[in-house]
C-alpha cells in the first residue's frame, strides 16, 4: 500500500490484479522484499506503452526485470534497462529469458548517471525507477537523450506521501528533500509539460512543450 490513496480504494484497484503473466514475479518480489512497481502503476505503465507505441525505451533501474517485461508485453519497441547491482542484473536476465523477451530487452550493468553520460542513443520513452534522490540529475542527463515527441515517466515521486509532510524521519530526509526539489524544478521549467499523478506511490509524466 502506498499510503497516498485511501486503503480501501487501493485494495479495490488491486483486486483487479496486476499483470497476469507476471504474477510469479510479483510473488517473488513480495516474498523477497524486492521493490517493484505496484499493480496500478504496472497497468498504467503498460497503458502508456500501448498508447504511445515507443520504438526505443530506456529504463533506469531494472531490479528483477518486472517493469521491463511489462513494457515489452504492451509494445513492440526495443528496451534498454540499466541496473547497477550485478546479482539483480543476472536475476533480471534470467526472468527475461524465461518469459521469452531476451531479443527485445537488453540489461546493462552500469550506474544510471554514468550510462546516461556516455550514451548517444535517442529514446522515445524513458522510465525512471532508480535512486529517488538522483531524479533531478537523471532528468538533466535524460532530456538530451529524449526524442522530440518522447516522454519520461518517473515512479515513487510522492514517496509514501512524505513529500507533503513538513517533518519527516531522518532516514527518509535526503530522499524527501531531493524529491521535493525535483518536483519543484520540473514544474518551474518553462520548456516542459508536467503532470503529477497520485497513481501508486506517485508518478510524474514529463514531456517537452511543442
What does this protein look like?
This protein is an alpha/beta fold and 210 residues long. Helix content is 42%, strand content 21%. The chain has a single domain (7-208), classed as 3-Layer(aba) Sandwich (Rossmann fold). It has helices at 7-14, 23-31, 39-52, 66-74, 86-99, 112-118, 135-142, 170-188; strands spanning 56-60, 78-83, 105-109, 123-128, 146-155, 192-197, 203-208. A seven-stranded mixed β-sheet has the order 3-2-1-4-5-7-6, with helices on both faces. Helix 7 (135-142) links the parallel strand 4 (123-128) and strand 5 (146-155). The radius of gyration is 16 Å and the shape is globular. The chain starts with 6 loop residues before the first helix and ends with a strand.
Strand order in the sheet with the most strands: 3-2-1-4-5-7-6
CATH topology: Rossmann fold
Strands, count: 7
Order of helices and strands: HHHEHEHEHEHEHEE
Radius of gyration: 16 Å
Gross geometry: globular
Properties at a glance:
8 helices; Rossmann fold; S-adenosylmethionine-dependent methyltransferase activity; alpha/beta; 210 residues; methyltransferase; O-methyltransferase activity; S-adenosyl-L-methionine; seven-stranded mixed beta sheet; 21% strand
Amino acid at each position: 500500500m502506498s499510503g497516498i490513496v485511501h486503503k480501501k480504494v487501493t485494495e479495490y484497484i488491486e483486486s483487479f490484479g496486476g499483470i497476469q503473466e507476471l504474477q510469479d514475479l510479483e510473488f517473488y518480489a513480495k516474498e523477497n522484499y524486492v521493490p517493484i512497481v505496484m499493480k496500478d502503476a504496472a497497468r498504467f505503465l503498460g497503458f502508456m506503452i500501448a498508447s504511445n507505441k515507443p520504438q526505443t525505451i530506456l529504463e533506469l533501474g531494472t531490479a528483477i526485470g518486472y517493469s521491463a517485461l511489462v513494457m515489452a508485453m504492451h509494445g513492440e519497441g526495443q528496451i534498454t534497462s540499466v541496473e547497477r547491482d550485478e546479482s539483480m542484473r543476472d536475476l533480471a536476465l534470467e526472468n527475461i529469458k524465461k518469459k521469452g523477451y531476451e531479443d527485445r530487452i537488453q540489461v546493462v550493468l552500469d550506474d544510471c548517471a554514468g550510462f546516461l553520460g556516455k550514451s548517444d542513443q535517442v529514446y522515445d520513452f524513458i522510465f525512471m525507477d532508480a535512486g529517488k534522490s538522483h531524479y533531478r540529475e537523471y532528468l538533466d542527463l535524460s532530456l538530451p537523450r529524449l526524442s522530440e515527441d518522447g516522454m519520461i515517466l518517473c515512479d515513487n515521486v510522492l514517496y509514501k506521501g512524505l513529500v507533503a509532510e513538513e517533518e519527516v524521519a531522518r532516514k527518509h530526509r535526503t530522499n524527501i528533500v531531493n524529491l521535493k526539489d525535483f518536483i519543484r524544478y520540473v514544474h518551474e521549467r518553462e520548456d516542459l509539460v508536467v503532470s503529477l499523478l497520485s497513481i501508486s506511490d506517485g508518478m510524474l509524466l514529463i514531456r517537452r512543450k511543442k
